[in-house]
Input
Amino acid sequence: MKNPYNPIGAKIVKIEKISSINKLFTIKIKDEKTRNAFKFRHGQFFILSVPGFGEAPFGFCSSPAIKETFQVSVDKRGSLTSKLFELKVGTDVGIRGPYGNGFNRKKIKSRDLVLVAGGCGLSPLRTIIQDANLNPKNFQNIQVFYGCRNSKLLAFKSDYKKWSKNIEMNLTVDTPDKAWKNSVGVVTNLLTSETIKSDSVAILVGPPVMYKFVIQKLVELGLSNEDIYISLERRMHCGIGVCQHCALVGGKYICTDGPLFSYAEIKDTPEGI
Amino acid sequence: MTDKQLQDLVSYLIKNKYRVHSHKEIDGEILIDEIYEGKNFELCPQRPLYSFKKFLLPPCQTMMKFKNNKTIGVKNPDTKTILLGIHFYDLKALTLLSQVFEKDPYFQKKLRNMMLIGQSPIPAKDEDYQKFEEDILEHLKFDIFLETKSNNNQKSFRIFTGSEDGQRLLDNFGYKDYEHIEYAGPVPEEGLNITQKSLIEKIFKSKGSKIWKELNKKCIDCGKCSIVCPTCFCFKISDEIKKDKIVRKREWDSCFYEEFSEVSGEHKFLDSTEDRIYNWYDHKFVRIPKEYSMPGCVNCGRCTEVCPAGIDIRKNIKRIIEEN
Output
């Protein structure tokens, strides 16, 4: 019987520091056949493990169009992520997945996108940003609204210039330093009837506190509940809808039904957001 | 089948290298234990305090081992196990678990090496016979089922088989007087009954109401109910570093523990007792019925019996039905 818990053998092939608290790992599946068969969609995630330090779910952070390797950005937080920060290029890791329902591809390609990110939330949205840079023809207009506490925490800073060729980048921080030239304040302030078209599709990735205000604003600006997508975070152990850690009361599982949900899908779920 | 024949069957099973587990009174409590001889064996009619779930879903089990960063095989001996005397509601629970863990190789391997022998409750009087006719038994996973009869205080059993393995075992033992019931899957054709269906709505409607505020004060989050519950199956996966190898293990978890919903940054999504106990009821009476078309509570009453705060699940469900 196939064991869904068996990790696929993979290797860390590159490690880059992308902000004061964050590192970007490039991962390659060792077996060629498995590597070629491994395909993921925007919005999906995988479970990464280091023997002895356990497993944890991570969102993909590179374009699905890149086949040989994929990337994950990691903040140093728990025991597994602390261990990851110590690892060197060439180390073996285990992966399981891809998991989650991913994003409706048609919607992504045929509509203007508003990507709202807070803190480390930019990483999973990078799958779309990078994809749009590689294949601009597959996308309509993309606007990114990204907020952080301070400019040191901004992820992928060195990429913004490159991204800006195809994508509108809007940045804001809570506490600016002297060199800061962009907006100051919460990301919600950047969303106005002048900046946002009401027939856009919005994807939000960030802390729950951001969701509440951003959703309210986007609804005010005329976006429909079906067109506002939120990525939900929960503790996960199995990734396949059994262990109950990521269950939402009422019957949805973040790991199998999400992690991306439209606001219409979860607005009546108590404590969903 | 007479009492004596059942004893002979137990002796036969032990002789044929089956490890037989059944429940009996030990120091005033009804507990499951291994049976080493058939002589004097008596089927215990009372409900064991713990259910049989640990035989299929051990409290802690090794999933895989790593040595020098390589996966090494886990030896799981194929012990042939008999669970003897499983009550109707515990069979229901095992039937549900076998659905939930349908694709789980650890669970399924244990189930393959296991024979489930069920028993009906002892009838109080002859006329009160609860008949386990096809419509009930056909939706339960079992190999052999013993329907208890008592005539003039003489106990005997009507025998059903629910699998080919069960038939083979009885044939080899030399007992032919059984009826076979074909397993028709876990769910009756009509799915959930009206009460079960309306309970899904009523639990949802009750969210935030007085009953949960009261339970918030009463429940002490000890998680005893989830340990004795035959359908509770939440688990966690973690690694343990042993001398020269690393063990990835799966352990029972409880949604009553605070860290159950904790994510990095110490945020807990189920951050009050009210949230946690509601989530427990939601799993039993909303999520499981929606996912598997079966109720997630088999009405065994164990959670009520062990609750140190005196929380009575039957009373609460009755109240939720009445108040919503």
